[in-house]
Amino acid sequence: MCASRQQRDQCIDFLSKAINLFDGLRHIKHGEEMYQLAHTISKFIQARSVLSLLDIDPPIIPEGNVLRSDAWFVVKEIFSTVEELRIVIHSTSRSARSFALNRSLGHIIESIKKLKSFSKSHVRFETPIILNVVEIIQEYLFSVSGLIGQIEIKEPIINPYIIGDPVLGNRFIGREDILRQLEELWFINTSPQSVILYGHRRMGKTSILRNATTKVNTEVRVAYVNLLSVSSASNGITDILMAICDALEEITEIPVPSNNDLFQFPETTFRRYLEQITKTFTGKGLIIALDEFEKIEELIDAGKLSKGFLGFLRGMVHMSSKIAFAFAGLHKLQEMNADYFQPFYASFIPISVAFLTRDATHQVLANPDPEFLLEYEPATLDHIYDLTNGQPYLTQLIGFQLVRMFNDYVFEQGKPRDRTFTIDDVRTICSGENFFTTGIHYFKGVWDQAAEGATHQQDILKALAPHPQGLTESELISQTNLPKETLQAALKPLKDHDVIRSQKTNEMVNWAIAVELFRNWVVKYKLNSVDS
Prior knowledge:
The protein has 532 residues and is an alpha/beta fold. It has helices at residues 5-23, 31-46, 69-90, 94-119, 126-148, 176-188, 205-216, 237-252, 259-264, 266-280, 294-301, 309-317, 338-341, 358-366, 378-388, 392-412, 423-430, 433-438, 440-449, 457-464, 473-480, 484-496, 516-525; strands spanning 195-198, 220-226, 285-291, 323-329, 349-352, 375-376, 420-421, 471-472, 500-505, 508-513.
C-alpha cells in the first residue's frame, strides 16, 4: 500500500531484501525482532488498499527491551485502527460508526506525531515506509468521515446506565473471566459443580447469576431465587421450597406441586418434584441459584428453618449428576456458622467477584449501548476508575448521573455543551450531595457490614479515611489505640471483603481504603458523626 505502483514495487523489493538479511540474523540479539518488524511492514505495503489491512493477522508485539519500540508502537496503533475500521464498515449503528471513526483517527494522528518526531533525530529504514502507510490510512479515514457525517443530538439521551437493578443482556459486560469459570465448572466438566459467588457489596453477583444461562451455555439452565423475596419465611421451609419450585417451573415448564402438598409434606413433595424434573431434563446442568444466601443463617437463628435444612439441600445434589447449587453473597462459606454450612465446605468451589479491571470499567462506561451518543475523554475514564477502583455499582452510578447532568443542562436549561464528558464533569457530580444520597444503600451497606464480626472495623475505617495513601500498621495502632492482635483481627475481614487494600510505599506496607468514593463518604459523613 503506497502512493504509487512504482513506489510500492520499490518498497516490496527493499523489504524483501531486509527480510532475507534479518532471517539470517534471527539467532542474535534483536535479530528476531527486526525480522518480524520487516515482515509486518512488508504485509502493510503489499496490501492493495486500506480495506485489505482487515485481512492481516496482527503480529505478536514484542515486550521488554526492544530495539524499535517506537516502530512497534505505531504498528500497534495501526492494528488498533484496523479494529475500529471493522466497526466503521460493518456496524449498523450510525453513532457506533462515528465513534469508531473518531477513535481510529486518534490512533493515526498519534502515530504520525510519533513518526515525525522520531525521524528528526533518528535515521531508520522503516520510518518513511510506515509513515507513508499511516498517511494513506489517514486520507481514507478523512474521506469516510464525510459519508458518516456529524452527530446532532436533538432530544434527551435515554439513560443506558443501570443502578440498583441487575444488568441484563448485552449491557452485561466485564465479567468474562467469571463466566469462563462457570462454563468450565457447569458445562465442560462431566457434571456441574456447585459454586459460591462471594464479594464486596453491589459487585454484580446477582447480574452474573441472572445472565448465566445465556452467557455460559444454553444447555445449562439456572433457576434463580433471591432469598430476600422470602425474608420473613412465615411458613418456614415451605416458603423457601415454594420459591425454588417456582424458579424451576420457569425454566423447565414442568408444573409445580400443589400448595397443599408442599404445606403438608414439604421435603417429600420437593424431592419428588426434583426427581420428575431430572428425568425429563435433557440439558447438561440444572443449577439452583440462591442469591443473598446469608438469609438462610438468619432464618435458622430465628427458628424458622431447622439446622438440617442445608443438609437436606445437599442431599438433592446426590439425586442427580445434573444438579448443582450456586450461592451468592457477601461471605465465604467458612465465614458462616459451621454448624449450618459445614456440609457444603468440601463440595462448593468459591469464586471471588472482585472489582472490574480498568479496561472493563472503560468498556462499561464508553459502550453502554450501541446507540449511545455521548463520549468520554480518555483521561475522564481513567479518573472514574481511580474514584471507583472498578466497583460496578459506583461506575454505573457515575455514568447515570453524567447523562442526567447532560440532559438537564442541554434540554432543561437550554444551554449548549459538548457531548464529551471531562474530568471536571465527573468532579461536579461526585462532589454533590445528590450523588451520595443516591448511592446511600451502597455506602451505608459497606459501613454497616464493617460493624459485623471482628470489633473495631469502623474505627479503622475512620482512622484511614483522612489518608488517601494509607497508614502503616504501626501508624494505625497509634491512631486507634488498639492492641496489635485486635487491629490485625479487624484488618482481616476488611481486606477479605475488599473494603481496604494493602499497598507498598517506600518499602513499607500501607493499609488504605480500597474505593476512593467510599473514603470520601466516610470523611464527609462519619468522621464527625457521634453514632457509627
